[in-house]
Structures are given as structure tokens and as C-alpha cells.
Amino acid sequence: FKTDAAEAAGQADRASRAFEAAKAKSDDAEEKLKEAQAEADEAVAQLREAEAAMQEATKAHKDAANHQVGGRARVDQAAEAVVTAEEDLESAKAKAKEADAKRKEEE
């Protein structure tokens, strides 16, 4: 009996130590899991910030492109106005020459 009891006590002691070791490993793994989850949460937050920054940059790029298109249209309109003004000036000069020529003939 004593041998069986001693053997059972030894097995119980080994089982208890094995349980404590397994519990320590489990606690360590749980802590590592919490750390990994915190890192993953931080990475997700950084990803969201990067996505927001990308959306802002895309909007700014679109706005700049729209301003550039508008600026080009205004330049085209101004160039057209210059051409029209030059044509009007040439026409006015021609009429002035004709008027001068008529006055000279009438004199």
C-alpha cells in the first residue's frame, strides 16, 4: 500500500508540476496573443490613417486638375479675344485708310 501510495503521490506531484508548466505556457501564450492583437489594432489604425491621407491627396489632385483645365480654358478664351481684337484693329485701320483716301479725293 505504502508503495502504491508513494507512487500515486509522485504521479500526482509530477502531474501538478506538468499542469503548472502548461498553465505558465498558456499564460505566456495568452500574453503574446494580447500583444499581437494590440500590434494588429495599431496596424489597422495606421492603415486607416493612410487610406484617409490617400483620399485627401486624390481629392487635392482632382481639384488641381480641375483648376488647370479651367485655367487652360481661360487662356484659350483670352487668346481668342486677342485674335478678335487684332482683327478688329486691322479692320479699323483699313476703314481709316479708306476714309483718309476719300477725304484726299474730296479736297
TrEMBL record:
User: From which domain of life does this come?
Assistant: Eukaryota
Q: Where is this region: Disordered?
A: 1-29, 58-77, 86-107
* Composition bias, Basic and acidic residues: 14-29, 90-107
The protein's name in its UniProt record: Uncharacterized protein
List all Low complexity biased stretches. Answer: 1-13
